Amino acid sequence: MLRFTLFFFFLVLAADVTVKRTTAMKVCWDPNPTFTGVCLDKNCAKDCANTEGYTDGKCKGSPLRCFCSYPCSS
């Protein structure tokens, strides 16, 4: 029983460390200079990933403009 308890403890500890490492990465945003048309999250994300080389895209602001995201250091 003690072995199982220790194994479970270390499993939870390892999972906690993994979650903290993946969530520690900061996301930076750049305006997409080439995007034209009506900004919808779907077409903005596609344009950012395909033509600009970013990881994702979202429409932000008023009026809606396309912003591309990429991982950056904290």
From TrEMBL:
<dbReference type="Pfam" id="PF00304">
    <property type="entry name" value="Gamma-thionin"/>
</dbReference>
<feature type="domain" description="Knottins-like">
    <location>
        <begin position="27"/>
        <end position="72"/>
    </location>
</feature>
<protein>
    <submittedName>
        <fullName>Knottin</fullName>
    </submittedName>
</protein>
<dbReference type="GO" id="GO:0050832">
    <property type="term" value="P:defense response to fungus"/>
</dbReference>
<keyword id="KW-0295">Fungicide</keyword>
<dbReference type="InterPro" id="IPR036574">
    <property type="entry name" value="Scorpion_toxin-like_sf"/>
</dbReference>
<keyword id="KW-1015">Disulfide bond</keyword>
<dbReference type="GO" id="GO:0031640">
    <property type="term" value="P:killing of cells of another organism"/>
</dbReference>
<keyword id="KW-0929">Antimicrobial</keyword>
<dbReference type="InterPro" id="IPR003614">
    <property type="entry name" value="Knottins"/>
</dbReference>
<keyword id="KW-0732">Signal</keyword>
<feature type="signal peptide">
    <location>
        <begin position="1"/>
        <end position="24"/>
    </location>
</feature>
